[in-house]
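2024-03-11 09:14:02 INFO queue: dequeued item ABC transporter ATP-binding protein, len=291
2024-03-11 09:14:02 INFO validating residues
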Amino acid sequence: MIEMRGVTIRYGDTVAVDDVSLTLPTDKIYGLLGRNGSGKTSLLSALASYRRPSRGTVLVDGVEAFENPAIMRGTAFIRDTLDLNDSDRVRAALDVAGRLRPTWDAEYAHKLLDIFELDPRKRISALSRGQRSIVGVVLGLAARTPLTILDESYLGMDAVARTLFYRELLADYLAHPRTIIISTHLIEEVAELFERVVIMDRGRVLLHDETDALRGRGVTVTGPAEQVSAFATGHTVLGEQTLVGVRALTLDGRLDPDEIARGERAGLTFGPLGLQDLFVHLTSQRLEVSR
Ligand SMILES: Nc1ncnc2c1ncn2[C@@H]1O[C@H](COP(=O)(O)OP(=O)(O)OP(=O)(O)O)[C@@H](O)[C@H]1O
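2024-03-11 09:14:37 INFO prediction written
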């Protein structure tokens, strides 16, 4: 169990994390979502023992995490800015990681480089942005640490590389269950991987729940604009998209099955609420929804 108790992180006058208490059961994949500047990286730095909170504590299985060598060896914190020696070759960077971590799987690391078609003889300084991200992802996955944190670590990767990454992450997690926390802005793309979702807003945790429970929080209804609007009367609308006469509305809450059946007979289609729609709704005050 990983616990944050009353964690506050300040930079001068800025309160980046504001009195957060959070309990994270282990061996799950978490998605950490939040708008720019909402405090995700700061929160993750405290979870990874990179930063001592201004106030509060982080406990791993009841033990204070900060400056605890065993907990730190068991934590991989991969950020978009990799802390690597630029003159090293990729192979050397992997060797360093292997010496630091008892759980490191060198064979798996090289298998991942093969999958991503990255030559281990390349120098870190010669890598493209996406290739640097691939090195980060390899360092995170092959570490097989009880706590693995990927903080927007795969942003430079192209769509093929990201798909390979999601596939590998899931396969390796199923073979070696551990706690993985992924912070991302590519919500819909990774939503399927998350067992639980934590949403931050202005330094606070707005929501922490199972992904399946969140999906049950709303429904989308799509069809001819007029019919959709008529159907939505009396419901709270969370989001709207209209394109050449077809309207898709996201409605709050579950619908009565009879109501859905009536809507389907009228030519409307229904689907579950997308995580991104819920996120946008919960964290944006400035997006006006028109009807
Ligand atoms: N080293 C720092 N010095 C001063 N302020 C900082 C520092 N790091 C972060 N902040 C501030 O703390 C707040 C939270 O930043 P943080 O990087 O944790 O957010 P984030 O959710 O990770 O953002 P993003 O999605 O843009 O990466 C922001 O207001 C940011 O300006």
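2024-03-11 09:14:37 INFO annotate: The pocket of adenosine-5'-triphosphate is lined by residues 11, 14, 16, 34, 36-42 (CB under 6 Å).
2024-03-11 09:14:38 INFO item closed
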